């Protein structure tokens, strides 16, 4: 018998988009799945939309939280209620390609990666229905260092399929206290214990739309700092990895206008202050704002020269 795959879908006030996401699950070529829709206290017609689907397909389950607590709590609820051998996720405004689940389960069975616990895939991005980006990750094996170096991996939850045993054996959850980058945090927890492979084709359509939540620089800066404190014990195992993480954290702070914080990070947290750090310190002292053409051009040059 095919392994059971649990698909966890958090949602909040997205009745107009939910149908597309659910139908993409119903259209999967893989049939042994359960869809756990966790309603984060919606006040629209979400419940009725879901109940209409449940009346037609018993594989769909619905849980409603009493108060709005955010996507992390909703995903954790879905994980707790799930029964699958594998767990994957889908945001309620996105959609799967029809062979998404099949290809990822097959990858688990045929991959040559030892201790495989998570399989990712590529993505196609749409803005108001118009395709503008397509990307497939190219890493496999032990990717923990790549995560700590903040290399591009494709950590978004809709792309990941994870062995249930990895999550359960190590009590892995989404961190509701992480202000941003919760998907990176979740995958970093997972990849401390297991290895990574990828289906080398886009299997998820990611829909960006007018009215979606605006990116919050303050939360992003705060999240980088919390990630540093949470994983400092791992970062300190290799000074180069630690210093690269801190340098990227400082540059992010500078970009979002936290100049003093950026300079303090470079002065106080770097273990080995090499030429890269010195260049960024000089630049941040001189270009307090990236408004002039010269400041912007120098910033781009520095990012390339220091491999950030």
UniProtKB/TrEMBL annotation:
What protein is this chain from?
Glycosyltransferase involved in cell wall biosynthesis
Listed A to Z, the keywords are:
Transferase
Q: Which Pfam families did the record assign?
A: Glycos_transf_2
The UniProt entry's coiled-coil ranges are none
Q: What residue stretches are annotated with the Glycosyltransferase 2-like domain? A: 6-169
Record-level Gene Ontology MF annotations: hexosyltransferase activity
